[in-house]
Amino acid sequence: MQKLLTRLQRFRTGSPLSFRLLAYILLFSSLFTLISSAIQIYSDYRKDLSQIDRRMMVVETGYTSSLARSLWALDQKLLQTQLEGILSLPDIVHLRLKIEPDSELVMGEIPRNAQTISHTFKLTHQGDEMFSLGQLTITADLKRVFSDMRQKVVVVLTTQFLKTFFVSILIIWIFQHFIARHLTTMPTTPAISHSTTCQTRLNWTDRTPN
Question: Which distant-in-sequence residues (6+ apart) come within 8 Å of 97 by Cβ?
Answer without folding.
Answer: 67, 79, 83, 104, 105, 106, 107, 134, 135, 136, 137
